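[job 4417] fold queue: 2 targets
>>> target A
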Amino acid sequence: MSPDARSDGNGTRDGQHVANVHDRLRAAILRGELPAGQVTSQVTLARDLGVGRTPLREALRMLQREGLVVSEPNRRVRIAELSSSDAEELYVMRIALEVVALRITVPLLTSTDIAELEGYMAQMDHYMRAEDRRGLRAPHRAFHDRLVHAAGERVAITIGQLFDHAERYRLAYGATTPGRWDQRRAEHREILDAAAAGDADAAARHLAAHYAQTASLIFAAIDPAHDLARLRTTIATVAPGAEAALGLPR
């Protein structure tokens, strides 16, 4: 039996869980360690990760379904490129879904939820002052997750995936940097204060404006001439007034 065909009875081949290989590759793509557009081979990836090619192929299929990798001839693998059209579709989906989930969640937030959100704010501030963007990721993700959790598990999973894909753009185009942190922090504060007051409409407007500002920074770098009509329509539909934040990078 070949090494790739061995199994320990727990869903592993060659001593590696497919999920573990998937998670390692996914993290490397999201952090930019495997840059957008890079072309590599399954042989190279298997060698660099120290894994068998069978679990690697299964992990790559999962990543392909998620849109993070593209399969090419001769077992070549291309990391999905960043583009203005993909970025707009991403933010259309993210804003439409997350604003609705926020409106569902805000009336159900407890004092414990608000206290935890305040804690995430403090952690985000700490990591950004220390210029530790990797450390920032966990409290930033937890902050946004807590604001939408009441919408249901399927919705939360989809929102989490969109959050991860958006991170590729934020990191690549400097949408969250120490120099911009005061503005980013102020935007998070507006969202939290509105949520704490139980004002779902205001929280929705602030969240949509926050993402519109981030999108503006990304598009100013990737394609300043890109027509954001779809994104503008989306924001005007779910959080009227917040679309004014588009086109105003700070």
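>>> target B
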Amino acid sequence: MRYILLFIWLLTLSVFAQQSIVIDGQFEDWQNVTTMVTDSAHDEHDTDWFGDGLPQPRPRKYSDVDILQVKFTHDQENLYGYVKASGIVGRTSSVANGQKAGRYYYIITIDVDNNDTTGYALQEGNYWPNSTGYDMNMEVEFYDGAFNTGHYINHEFMNEAELRAGRTDLYNYIIRLAPGTYDNYLQWVVFPDSSIVEVKDRGPVYQGIIEVAVSADGHEAEMKAPMWGFFWDENGEPIVKLGNTIDISFSLEGSGELSESAIEAGYNGNKSVWGSDTAEPIVGYYLQDYWTAVEETSPPIAEDFSLEQNYPNPFNPTTTIRYQLQTAGHVELAVFNALGRQVRTLFTGFQSSGTHRITWDGLDDNQKLLPSGVYFYRLQVDQFSRIRKMIFMQ
């Protein structure tokens, strides 16, 4: 009886955890999310205080960046953030209205390795309250009256030389966690086909895999960032994955042409009055794997084959895929790109029982070299199949 009750409890957790947030500007699906922080109203501040050598920021009237509440959750593949503000999230001045093109940032900064010696301290970016060890961001920029980019940021660099080396790693989907500073960072948009483009603030509009939606009244916003967009370390391990413990900090920041401080000064939407607000961090958030916990309580299913992780991974120029068959059968081993299109058939036919190894060289069925990126290989034995992920780097 005890084990049955445990299974039911785990199943309940799983069903709840798998109710993924829908990024649609409707917020009923956030009501049961309990990981949250409330923040005092009217505590917006300037964004120059630390650079000016002050011990804490100066107050600023800017309700659009005034955080009232934040929430955070996850599912098997994505991170989700929610923010509620006194004013309108994402509101900026616009050239179309005869004003300066304004900027606004919805920022979720993450200590991805639960280690304060890597990454940077928030105060270096003039954020308050300060906390340390932040490595990467999932972030949205609004610019000139509209959503501009949804991007990832890596802050693991102390100088220009490290930044250049990090850029080379980035295009190979590698992130090396190390001490960094706020001023040295890489910022990129990821697309569903696993391609990336490096971006700068106020750049061209790129809307990749990060999604954002704002409520009809503007006071609430939600963001979704797939975990795989944070990429992998030098050993091929995902930077963000289930089982990790992370710290999370939420900030809203804007150039403030439409802020109350700007209005009082009579700037008419044509002069920046920067302001921001940061909530207390969510510390020690565990990316719980509810799904595997339930699967492990289910009766084991006998398998006639197993599929191993390719090695090396990431790889260039070749990698080996190994699998075992308990009994002979019809086998198909194929490679798919991130869009799910089959690009290479590595083997199809009858195979005997035992261990088998097949090498892939990054070529498609037409013997053309495929681009760097995330690929999947699927082993199908009779009516059963298994899939694993791999990274090809040119």
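[job 4417] complete. Note on B: Residues 1-18, 293-302 have pLDDT under 50 and may be disordered.
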